[in-house]
Amino acid sequence: MTFRERLRALPTIPRPGLPALDPEAAPATPHELFVTWIDEAIDAGVLLPQAAILSTADTAGHVHARTLLLKDVTADGWWFASQSTGPKGRDLAANPHAALTFLWPVLGRQVKVTGSAAPAGPEASRADFLARSDLSRATGLVNHQSEPLASQEEYVGAFAEALRAVTADPELVAPDWTAYVLTPTEVEFWQAPDNGPQTRLRYVVGAGGWTSGLLWP
Ligand SMILES: Cc1cc2nc3c(=O)[nH]c(=O)nc-3n(C[C@H](O)[C@H](O)[C@H](O)COP(=O)(O)O)c2cc1C
Known about the structure:
- The protein is of the alpha+beta class.
- The chain has helices spanning 3-9, 30-43, 87-94, 122-130, 134-141, 152-168; strands at residues 51-57, 63-69, 72-74, 77-83, 97-104, 109-119, 177-191, 199-206, 209-214.
- A hairpin with a 2-residue loop joins strand 3 and strand 4.
- The model has no long low-confidence stretch (mean pLDDT 96).
């Protein structure tokens, strides 16, 4: 079998047994439906249901994407955290337009959250950093994220130093650590079919609040 044939032979989303998305029963806001869906992903044993792809673009239109972890969903939007000095931070400082994409394959579900992301402020960033484990705080304290690294030993040394610093001072916060909130302008829920057509439900925000409608699959 060629590589191309092996890819073609792979199973896609499993069915039957997939849940349904009933547009008539959808809640008033995408926030409510998202929390229901992530709860169902947790109950279904999805690995890292809180992981999402964050897509950003610089002012030249070059797109960059990477995985990160969702920290919260509030009326303000979808929260995540990172160093502000790396590529994603630079992109967002120059161009706040961004998208988060979640995939929960065993449930046949994808969610796309599109809008603009901004730093949530020093207090939120501090609280996010201090809620991390020592190892995660040490990771966040080491500078130069996404810059070329001469050798793994260099990083091991910098990480050990950072770990010493965070364990010696439980209040230490990395100066570049930033909580971001992505305020959506639209959120799309995609449900693979159990027995029928796939369903796409898109929420769009306007002056009167959120409205929702179906999209052609
Ligand atoms: C499962 C997973 C979770 C991750 N979570 C985060 C996160 O919450 N914040 C973060 O800054 N990077 C996280 N990363 C690392 C990013 O994918 C990325 O490598 C790093 O943030 C640098 O991105 P950038 O160079 O595009 O700015 C995670 C990676 C994986 C695979």
